[in-house]
Amino acid sequence: MSSLETFQAQRTQLVGLLVSGSLEGFESVLDWLLSWEVLSWEDYEGLRLQGQPLSHLARRLLDTVWNKGSWSCEKLVAAIQEAQADCQPSELPACQDLRSLHPAQDLQRHRPALVRRLYSHVGTVLDLAQEQGFVSQFECDEIKLPIFTSSQRARRLLDLATVKVNGLAAFLLQHIQDLPAPSSLPFEATECKKYISKLKTTVSAQARFLSTYDGAENLCLEDIYTENILELRAEAAVAGAPQKSPATLGLEEIFSTHGHLNEDADTVLVVGEAGSGKSTLLQRLHLLWATGQDFQEFLFVFPFSCRQLQCVAKPLSVRSLLFEHCCWPDVGQQDVFQFLLDHPDRVLLTFDGFDEFRFRFTDQERHCSPMDPTSVQTLLFNLLQGNLLKNARKVLTSRPDAVSAFLRKYVRMECHLKGFSEEGIELYLRKRHPEPGVADRLIHLLQATSALHGMCHLPVISWMVSKCHQELLLQSRGSPKTTTDMYLLILQHFLMHACPSDAASHSLGPSLLQSRLSTLLHLGQLALWGLGMCCYVFSAQQLQAAQVNPDDISLGFLVRAQSVMPGCAAPLEFLHITFQCFFAAFYLVLSADMPTASLRHLFNCRRPGSLPLARLLPRLCVQGSGHEDNSVTALLQKAEQHNLQITAAFLAGLLSQEHWDLLAECQVSRKALLQRRACARWCLARSLHKHFQSIPPALPGEAKSMHALPGFVWLIRSLYEMQEERLAQEAVRKLDVGHLKLTFCSVGPAECAALAFVLRHLRRPVALQLDYNSVGDIGVEQLLPCLSVCKALYLRDNNISDRGICKLIEHALHCEQLQKLALFNNKLTDGCAHSMARLLACKQNFLALRLGNNHITAAGAQVLAQGLRENASLQFLGFWGNKVGDEGAQALAEALGDHQSLKWLSLVGNSIGSVGAQALALMLEKNVALEELCLEENHLRDEGVCSLAEGLKRNSSLKVLKLSNNGITYLGAEALLQALERNATILEVWLRGNSFSLEETEKLSLRDTRLLL
Ligand SMILES: Nc1ncnc2c1ncn2[C@@H]1O[C@H](COP(=O)(O)OP(=O)(O)O)[C@@H](O)[C@H]1O
Ligand SMILES: [Mg+2]
Fold it and tell me: Which residue's CA lies nearest to atom 1 of ligand 1?
């Protein structure tokens, strides 16, 4: 390849390099190119248009350089290297050489060195130049704008000198010569060093321990941190193209240069459900940085928590945010701040819990000055957009509901945090319980109780399991089944710790609960008030107002907030947002003065006709308690939907039969409790019906299908928490759909358990589509109870391995209705082939099996072929992207010779060559059913295609033969043409992406229009 071709081939990579750093990096590449005269002044001006995204500029630069020929291209690569190495540019030549006849040209020739030399003196030099009349006040102000970094200011001054013909260039050359040579890189400056060291100490102190929880234990993050599944959000699938699994990332990869949604954005978004480990992930990142283990490309890391930031009432500037709300520089504040502004690419800001920030993201209000104060929300939104501290990296974590399309516009990369894998759960428990035997027994317990095991994927539940390990291992009454069970267990644990005399009972009896009822109600009231006010950290006054006393605090559910604003007393927060919801639910169940009707707001469910009135006259709807703003109704109306959903699920769980006796003892009025239960039941059933009613009618000829609306999964979860068969039965009685779609709904094992609990009561079978979730093997196990009402199960991209699928099939053998399984993009290997073969052999009404993009080899295909021989019903068989190879293709082909029903076979991308093709050709000679054979992306050459052509001559069922992207030449196509002359059934032969010249392509398509070239 010529160097120009190489250059073009590397284009994407070069764009990546040019935009991967900051604008600063890009401009320093331009400096070098100007100095080497690769770029003319006109070229340069065209490349520094303000307001253009960096990626556009980078591409334009590549085009400009490419047009100039290979020497220029080589120089660009060299310039990128220079800029990346950030090495000291060659020294300025001696004085006399600089007193040249062409000062403007010299400014360009020595530009990299001049920028470096001018760097920290732009202000002084500008003032001097103004004094001597070389520049105007206006020009001075323009250059000094705070949006520019020091190097950018230096460049702007040099640019001005290039176009001004009044001697400014000569003046600059002379003065720059007199400036002190920079002795070392500026971040070596002692102020900065001191600040970095203070920041590291502060951050490390905050990050070292996990929340102190009940105060009895100090969990060292380093000791128990367990890797969490982090997936890159893939771009929306290209229509028709099979999509690769989303890439799993290591924490260190969140700043990598790949997978960007928007190259010009600085914000990395980490999305995950409550308890999935977002805060812990950030804490880990902070610790790795502060202890020098990783992320050292950042000199400064500033951690913030949104729940705390939103409490800042007074206007804030970037400077006060960093210094007053994170870490104060003891010396040289101005220099340190200037350094931060000049080197934004060495700065990282993290914002935890955007879902807990009560302001909605908007890009309406622009704020660009790092010095000027503004409201905390405007400040945060402008930081995220890059209007402030452009090129400083930001990491934002959030629960999914709070991420809007508006916000996504400013996101560079989006990752999803999925919780622990099965191995992760085990590893975590082993780290938590190094003492002999305990972890083993716990793991054994989890394996025996899959409902609990499923819940443990959420790290917060794994933490609870380990916290309550003694209770769990001793428990004789069976393990927790629902989330509410688990939270009650931990409540028991805390109560017993606070009151050891009751420890002998080993269960949460009414007496234990009653003894601390007032504490629980105080906490509940605070929790509910907080949810309503979107307040998740509580000051001493707020605690006092909610009557939370030190005794209540000592129970251990309120802990000191981790990140503390310097100089303030650390506020308290609930151990985790899910505890805040749990206590709020507790209060809603047990509080004496809670009007039952308020509960409707928890389920977003109002009495028919009450809505307009409620909007007009909110006060009228407030019954009972006197203060309208703090009434339960008002609070529930104001709370965030995702917190209400969790609270509703806990409420349903607490009102379940299972916990009735426990709560009935505590409740003053049994009647009120009964009313509340009736109300919760009514709301659940009604909300579900509303969902069902909103399903549009079926299109003619298609099954009526329902795509789960937001909230559907939570209603199902609440039903599960209630554990009432009759209610579940009643709830889905009116669901009349043929296809239930729950793609991208964060369905994990716990949700699967809930879905199965409810859906198994369906009267008519459905196709259940759960593509793109995190079902996993444990989730599959949870789904088994509803398998008998599934006519099809779609589980694309769900992290399922042989173990899960073998269990599923064992069960499926007895499910008459189930006819289709789609398992694209999972972790299947030959290990599940026996089960698959059994399924085919035993279920003579089975229609479709899709196994694309798994890891099945020839051995697996051979086993599966055995099942195929005994099967007479299968119509669709998909193997896209496995590795069956020639031998596998042979085995399948032999089994399919006499197959009566298979219409569609895909062996795309399976490394099949001539031998496989020959076998398939023989199959075509005998087979009378197959209509479509997909063999794209294999190793087929003319020899194989000639065999296939022979097969085609004797075949009368095949309509479509797909051979794109193989190594076929004109010879092979010729053979196909001959076959087509004798075959009237074939409608299309796909041949794109093979080795035909342009003329050949034209010639071939003229000969037979059935060839698609
Ligand atoms: N990677 C991890 N390793 C060990 N424990 C974890 C991990 N992630 C979360 N946890 C545990 O789960 C709890 C809840 O996690 P957290 O990070 O607060 O979740 P989120 O911020 O997503 O709601 C933590 O307090 C910690 O005990
Ligand atoms: Mg969190």
Answer: 226
Ligand 2 centroid to residue 307 C-alpha, Å = 10
The secondary structure of 108-148 as a DSSP string is: HHTHHHHHHHHGGGHHHHHHHHHHTTSS-HHHHHHHT-TTS
Q: Say which amino acid occupies 564.
A: V
Q: What pLDDT, on a 0 to 100 scale, did the predictor assign at position 844?
A: 95
The Cα 618–Cα 628 span in angstroms is 9
Q: Residue 236: is its pLDDT beyond 60?
A: no
Query: HSE (CB half, 13 Å, CA atoms) of 497?
Result: 19
Q: Considering the entire predicted model, what is its pTM? A: 0.82
In this prediction, residues 863-889 reach a mean pLDDT of: 97
User: Degrees (nearest 5) of the Cα angle 27, 31, 33?
Assistant: 110
Cα 19 to Cα 37: distance, rounded to the nearest angstrom: 22
pLDDT of amino acid 215: 53
Residue nearest (by alpha carbon) to ligand 1 atom 24: 460
Whether residue 546 contacts residue 526, with contact meaning beta carbons closer than 8 Å, is answered with: yes
Ligand 1 pocket, residue 483 CB under 6 Å:
no
DSSP state of 963: -
Query: What pairing do the DSSP bridges indicate for beta strands 904-906 and 932-934?
Result: parallel
Q: What are the DSSP calls for 533-544, one per residue?
A: HT--EE-HHHHH
CA distances from 862 to 29, 581, 582, 834, 856 (A): 58, 53, 53, 10, 10
Ligand 1 pocket, mutate which of 463, 464, 640 (most atoms under 8 A from CB): 463
* pLDDT above 50 for 229: yes
CA of 422 to the centre of ligand 2 (A): 22
pLDDT computed for residue 617 by the predictor: 36
Terminal-residue alpha carbon distance, the chain: 28
Q: 641: how many CB neighbours lie within 10 A of its CB?
A: 12
Instruction: Report the alpha-carbon distance of residue 533 to residue 638 in Å, rounded.
Output: 7
- The per-residue pLDDT of the chain, averaged, comes to 87
Where does the pLDDT of residue 213 fall: very low under 50, low under 70, confident under 90, or very high at 90 and above?
Answer: low
Model confidence over 500-532: pLDDT tens digits? Answer: 665 555 566 677 888 889 999 999 999 999 999
Minimum-distance ligand 1 atom for the alpha carbon of 576: 18
CA of 438 to the centre of ligand 2 (A): 28
Strands (E), 131-226: none
Distance 491 CA to ligand 1 centre (A): 19
- Closest ligand 1 atom to 282 CA: 17
pLDDT digits (tens, 9 = 90+) for 485-501: 999 999 998 888 877 66
Quick one: DSSP state of residue 390? T
pLDDT category at 90 given cuts 50, 70, 90 is low
Sheet containing 393-398, strands listed edge to edge, beginning at the edge strand earlier in sequence:
248-249, 229-232, 411-419, 267-271, 393-398, 347-352, 300-305
Whose Cα sits closest to atom 8 in ligand 1? 277
| pLDDT of 613 strictly over 70 | no
Q: What residues contact 176, with CB distance under 8 A and at least 6 apart?
A: 92, 114, 117, 118, 125
Residue 512 CA to residue 555 CA, distance in Å, equals 13
Number of residues in the chain: 1013
Pairing mode, strands 267-271 and 411-419? parallel
Closest CA to 732 of 769, 698, 685: 685
Give the tens place of pLDDT for each residue, 762-775. 989 999 999 999 99
Residue 814's φ and ψ, nearest 5 degrees, are -100, 10
Query: Taking Cα atoms as reference points, which of 671, 661, 672 lies closest to residue 513?
Result: 661
Cα Rg, the chain, nearest whole Å = 34
| Ligand nearest the Cα atom of residue 579 | 1
Share of the chain above pLDDT 70, in %: 89
Amino acid occupying residue 5: E
The CA distance from 597 to 755, in Å, is 28
